[in-house]
Structure formats: C-alpha cells, structure tokens
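>> received
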Amino acid sequence: MSARLIEIYLPEAEIGRLEELLPRHCRRFWREAVPGDQEKYSCIVQQRYTERLLNDLNAAFETVPAFTAYVAELEAVLPPIEETVATELNHPDALPPPTRLERFFSRDRISTDELYDDIEESLHIRPSYLLTVALSAIIAGRGMRSGQTAVVIGAMIIAPLLGPTMGVALAATVGSARLGWQATTTLGVGCIVAVLAGVVIGASVAIDPLVPELRNRTIVHPADIALALACGAAGVLAFSRASSLTLVGVMIAVALVPPLSAAGIYWGAGYPPASANALFLFAINLVCLNVAGIAVFLFQGLPPKSWRLTGGIFALWVFILLGLASMMAGRFVFGLASIGWMARYLADRI
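>> returned
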C-alpha cells in the first residue's frame, strides 16, 4: 500500500481556501483545533498525488508565515486505499489522465520533496564523508589487489558516492542549479579522495598489476556502457521508490568506486597508462549513470522546472557519452583497449 499522511497547519482565516483545495488530491481528511489560533488538517493521500498536493499547498500558502506541512509514510490504512482507475482524482489543471504505462511507472515514486530530503544530508562535505570515501576506496583497493571479490562488494555497500551521484541526476532533471553545484562539488571532492587513497595503496604496498580484479578496471569495452546504463536505471528506480540505500549503493558503487581506486593504485605503483584507462572507464560510467538517471526520473513523471533546460542538459550528457564511445571505438581500432595490449604493457613493466 502506497500512501502518505500529510499534516497541514494553517491560521483559521485560511481554512476556506484549504478546504477547496484538498478534495482535488485526497478523499480522506479531517480537521482539529490546535493551540495558537491554528487549525490542523490531517490527510491520507495516495502516493501518486503527494507531489501535486505539496505543489498546490506551496503555491497557495507559501506567503502565510504560520503555514507548515509534514509528510509521513503510512504502513497500513483501513479500509485500504486502492491504486486503481476508479479511485483516480481529476487533475486540477484538466490535463489528460495518465496512460496505463505512465500510471504503472509513476504510482510508487516518492515525491520530489522526499527525494530532496533523502539526498540532502549526503551532499555536505564533512569529515565523516571524506573518511567514508577514503575507507571505501581502501577496502575496494585491497580487495582488488588480493583478488577478493567479496571484499570489493563490501566497499560497494558503504556507498559514499551514492548521494552526490543521485543529486547530479536529480538536479539536471528538475533544473536546480544550487542542488547541481552542491552535488557536483561533493562528488568531485569524493572522487579526488578515492583516487588519493588508491595512490597511497599503490605506493606503499607491492601489487601484481595483472590480478584480474585490477586489470579488468583498465579494460573499456561496449559491455561497460550497458552495465553503467543498467546500474543508473536500476539505482534511480530503487531510489525513487525509497528502497534500501544499500541496494542502491551497490548499483552505483559497482560503476564508480572500483575504477577510481584502481586508477589511484596504478598511478601510485608507477603505471600511468593503466591509471588513465581506469579513469576513462570511470568517466564513461559516470556519464552513463547520469544519462540513465535523468531518463528514468523523467520517465517516472518527475516534473522539470524547464523542459528546455532539462532537455539541453540531457542532450549534453548524451553528446559526451557519444564522444567517449567514439574514443573507445578508436582505441579498439588501434588496439589500445584490448585485454591483450594491457596485459602485455603490464607484463613488460614487471
């Protein structure tokens, strides 16, 4: 059951406007008086209507100093609220009703405000964030160095780059410059810390550059693009439905943390071309995650402030992806992206 309890606090003078607005978005609400000359309205709202109710509340009462709204997730409601065509409420702007496909993919998505709240805490550059990124990269690096896949997965579960990565895609979708700058800065700092942690490993311990777990991060081929696109799409689908952050973290980390750590390890160990290859893989993965993330956010009905702006940003990411894919194709043509070339290079340096 997908429903939210929204509690609204307003001065008594504003309740007339509120009672006109609420029936457009929910079928169950009740009123009670609270201290301070305010009225409290409690509404049970189907999850798919949460977004538009909050938007209408903000548009109608944002200038009212005493206005407050809280959103809470409900575990159960009796009698249950059904997500069917029969229970569908008319859109206040008289827009055409959603198609079955749109209703299927958007009915479980949490509201934009809830997405913001889930991401916001992870966009601050704090000592704990820097330490978590460094530890995640060290765990991934040691796991790759010793060929222990389970250890690498442990680093993925930590998922320190989850919030910033989702923040970049969300900012591009809704057209928020502030969120985009904050997410990009946090992600950039995290990437630098992850690479530096890998450099420390590569410079301080002996490594075998031909270990498959490491060497695979230097090989770029078309399957990596498919993997990164799948990771981004699956991550956004899970994230927008408030699924386990650990699940989302594994999806994102599989495409970001290991290449960054491998790039640092190879650089610290004195293998610059291998390090560049790992960074190239990271760049392709990052671009794919944003392309897939924006596409899925839009597919789920996340409302952009400007379709022109969002479309332009999406087109730019696609253009960058095509450029990187062309570079990858050129590397294959010249034999610089094959497993054999990288194995020969690493073997010659040993």
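>> The first helix runs from residue 15 to 21.
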